[in-house]
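Example 3.2
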Amino acid sequence: MDGEELLKSASEHYPGSMNQDDLYIAYPSIQEAINEGVFDDVSILSGTNMGEAKYLATATADDFYAEYKEQLGDLYDKYDFENLLKITDKTAMVTSRQLGTLGFGTQDSRNLMVNRLYGKLMAERTDGKAKNYTYLFSQITPESITEIGTDRSAAEQWAWHSSEQFYAFNSMRDGVPASRNWRDWDYELAEKMNQYWVNFITNGDPNGEGLAQWPEADENMGYIDFGAGITVHSEPLAPLEELMGEFTQQYFQFPTQEQE
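Structure, written as tokens:
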């Protein structure tokens, strides 16, 4: 069989290095596996890093609203986007980059709202049996002096891809790597994050003594933010979050409760 035909027939929903072999990769898409109940008994801890998502590059306020009007379609007027979110030329690019991570990004693994919606979907599907926990990692790791003013600077990278691993695995040490001048809060955050991860691996629940209560991503779509502090989000959705939720559900074709 031609290699291109094989990939098209068996692996079009997976990265190029994976093949649906009906043993380890048993379904043509993750969505089908979810719908078949494969994850009904699987607790998942998932999240993303602030600033690594795809976002609309908008240099001015006019560009910002024009680009989002095109992306959001009917949702733009439904939520009165121009009045819902006020920005200026100075804040257009930064705000757009934040929104890409929080819920308007088009990469599923780097859109926080995807994780929040998945938790809600599974809580509804399994009547609370499937427990999912979602995080946003927004801590800015210390930069080396050689990175300042370059594409590798903290100002450019924000919470760069995989930077959370220093914290989740609590692997940072003085002078390792030499380019990272770790601060007191880095060590404290690493201790706390690592304990959350250990608790989750041990018993399916990240919570434990001495830790802020990490809410489930259930019908409230709660999550926790690991950044300059640890912030818990379990409050009712703000209108902007409702808009991001509806956009994400449409863009990634989440099934609604009526469809199940």
